[in-house]
Design brief:
- The structure is a single chain.
- An 8-stranded mixed beta sheet has the order 1-2-5-6-7-8-9-10.
- By secondary structure, the protein is of the alpha/beta class.
- It is globular and about 50 Å long.
- β6, α3 and β7 form a beta-alpha-beta unit.
Length: 220
């Protein structure tokens, strides 16, 4: 259990379930968690691969859904383990938990198929200037309406973000029908790019610079 450190729901009390593995290949990935034979969850050791049912039974016996904001499913990239993820989300919803999914946005077709089990989708727009990889507008156009209603968008920016980058981000927001975005500085460098904020606002986008709170608090 911890608090959300990024995006729209900073400070929300959540239970985090972290998936290992990602094939996006972001430069300087800060969540490079490898598969382990065992993992600890709320003081108990589990052996991988764990069954979704076993995990949710353990969780529901100890944590009341009304006592937390949501269960945050993060990674890695959770959508790469879709069979396990679907069963996990289905069972969490059955027990009354709100399901919060963090994803890179590179797997929209898979995300669409999971939409009925999701309450909130935290979608990361990736830029080459920051990560060496970049989101695709054509992929966003395939996102179904149910997922779009549940999405908010985050963007991690480096000091060399360009106006062309901002243009593409705004185009992506337009595809999704969104008018707000949550910005975080790469590695939490302590400078706010006012010109980038101004550019977003001039284009009708409410942009919010937020420190990555979990890094300041040294929590995971």
């Amino acid at each position: 259990m911890s608090v959300q450190g990024e995006g729209k729901y900073v400070g929300a009390l959540q239970l985090f379930i972290r998936f290992s593995g990602c094939d996006v290949g972001c430069k300087g990935c800060d969540t490079d968690y490898s598969f382990c034979d065992t993992f600890d969850f709320e003081g108990e050791k589990f052996v991988n691969p764990v069954e979704a049912k076993e995990l949710v039974i353990f969780l529901s016996d100890r944590i009341d859904p009304v006592g937390i904001h949501s269960v945050a499913i993060t990674g890695g990239e959770p959508l790469l383990q879709i069979d396990f993820l679907t069963e996990l989300c289905r069972l969490l919803k059955r027990e009354g938990y709100k399901v919060f999914l963090e994803t890179s946005g590179f797997y929209v077709d898979i995300l669409n198929g999971l939409s009925q089990f999701l309450d909130i989708v935290s979608l990361d727009f990736k830029l080459k200037s920051t990560f060496g990889v970049e989101f695709f507008l054509d992929d966003l156009k395939k996102m179904n309406e149910d997922v779009r209603k549940k999405v908010y968008v985050k963007l991690i920016v480096s000091e060399n973000i360009s106006k062309e980058d901002v243009d593409k981000v705004i185009n992506g927001l337009d595809v999704l029908g969104k008018k707000e975005i949550y910005l975080h500085n790469l590695n939490n460098y302590n400078k706010i790019n006012m010109s980038i904020l101004t550019e977003f606002y001039k284009r009708g986008i409410f942009a919010y610079f937020i420190p990555q709170v979990h890094k300041f608090l040294e929590i995971r």
